[in-house]
């Protein structure tokens, strides 16, 4: 291999590495995951205190990006210790048997400046579904900030069994919201 061929090969290798996604370090203190739902027609927002979010992101080539999210279902905080214990029980998240809710992306595509469409598999309480949702991304200094929301039906994941299947008390519609701050 001559010098010119080596230079071309090194340049191409450098371009492919620059275009590939990079794993970002999530700032857990600045990142939030919450669920909003209605109980007796009153909106309630609860936060998950424990989550692990891994984002492998390239602004130049978002289709090379990927994300995984793990949420500790027993970490849901409704603002009341008794209610927090209740949602960890078998009728709700069954956190003893299903300690994690997970999302794994299967595709991330540009949807315009600062906007992405994310598709993937959401698994809660042993039930999986293919989902797709919009996501905004913006640079904030060295950080990337990702914001989005994903509407789901809780009964599709058996969240609220037995008497809790009745949606008159707790609505079926739930919106999972997330704000993720991450840096290279």
What does this molecule look like?
- The protein is mainly beta.
- It has a single domain (20-183), classed as Beta Barrel (Lipocalin), CATH 2.40.128.
- Helix content is 14%, strand content 52%.
- It has two helices and eleven strands, in the order H-E-E-E-E-E-E-H-E-E-E-E-E.
- It has helices at 3-19, 81-88; strands spanning 22-26, 32-39, 42-48, 51-57, 66-72, 76-77, 100-110, 115-124, 127-140, 143-153, 170-183.
- The chain has an eight-stranded antiparallel barrel.
- Strand 4 (51-57) and strand 5 form a beta hairpin.
- It is elongated and about 50 Å long.
- The protein starts with a helix and ends with a strand.
- Mean pLDDT is 90; it is low at 2-19.
What's this, in brief?
This protein is mainly beta. Helix content is 14%, strand content 52%.
């Amino acid at each position: 291999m001559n010098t010119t061929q080596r230079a071309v090969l090194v340049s191409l290798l450098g371009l492919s590495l620059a275009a590939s996604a990079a794993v970002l370090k999530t700032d857990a203190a600045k990142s939030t995951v919450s669920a909003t739902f209605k109980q007796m027609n009153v909106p309630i927002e609860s936060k998950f205190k424990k989550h692990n979010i891994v984002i492998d992101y390239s602004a130049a080539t978002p289709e090379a990006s990927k994300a995984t999210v793990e949420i500790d279902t027993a970490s849901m905080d409704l603002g009341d210790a008794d209610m927090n214990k209740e949602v960890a029980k078998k009728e709700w998240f069954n956190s003893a048997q299903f300690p994690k809710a997970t999302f794994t992306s299967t595709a991330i595509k540009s949807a315009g400046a600062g906007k992405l469409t994310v598709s993937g598999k959401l698994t809660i309480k042993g039930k999986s579904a293919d989902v797709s949702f919009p996501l905004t991304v913006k640079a904030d200094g060295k950080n990337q900030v990702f914001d989005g929301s994903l509407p789901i039906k809780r009964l599709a994941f058996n969240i609220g069994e037995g008497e809790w299947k009745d949606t008159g008390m707790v609505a079926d519609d739930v919106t999972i919201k997330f704000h993720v701050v991450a840096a290279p």
